[in-house]
Amino acid sequence: MNVQLIFLSGFGMAGSLKKGDAGVRIDAPHLNRENMKLLEKWLSRKEQPRWHPDRINLRTGKQGVIDEGISKKADVVAMRTAVQGLLTLVSK
After folding, report:
1. Model confidence pLDDT, tens digit, residues 47-77
2. Which residues contact 90 (CB under 8 A, 6 or more apart)?
3. Which of 21, 32, 37, 72 is least buried, going by the fewest C-beta atoms within 10 A?
4. In a 3-state reduction of DSSP, which class is residue 30?
5. Which region holds residue 10: left if phi is over 0, alpha if psi is between -120 and 50, else beta?
6. Whole-number Å distance between alpha carbons of 29 and 13
7. Checking DSSP bridges between strand 16-20 and strand 23-27, what pairing results, if any?
8. Residue bearing the bigger pLDDT, 91 or 39
9. So what's the pLDDT on residue 18?
């Protein structure tokens, strides 16, 4: 969730994420619809592809070498989940 707050802050939307019965929601007093659209565009064009397993597996530092274990690491999975969760929240 901290990753999601960093993205919100980066797009000028200070607030917090609250867990409730219906799931996670953004709790911010002044959500700017324009900033949410910009964030949605950024996440879908930049961050979602960046953390996709097929792209992550290519980041071994050696050309032509693929390591499928990289995309299964806990921090990579957490980042991918955070980006996807925030994308779902802002696209509502």
Report:
1. 999 999 988 988 888 888 889 898 899 999 9
2. 26, 36, 39, 40, 43
3. 21
4. coil
5. alpha
6. 9
7. antiparallel
8. 39
9. 73
- Cα torsion 47, 48, 51, 55 to 10°: value is -110
Q: What residues make up the domain containing 28?
A: 2-90
Calculate the dihedral angle through the C-alpha atoms of 12, 78, 41, 31, rounding to the nearest 10 degrees.
-30
Domains contained in the chain, number: 1
Distance CA 26, CA 15 (A): 7
pLDDT tens string 2-48: 788 788 888 887 777 777 776 666 666 666 788 889 999 999 999 99
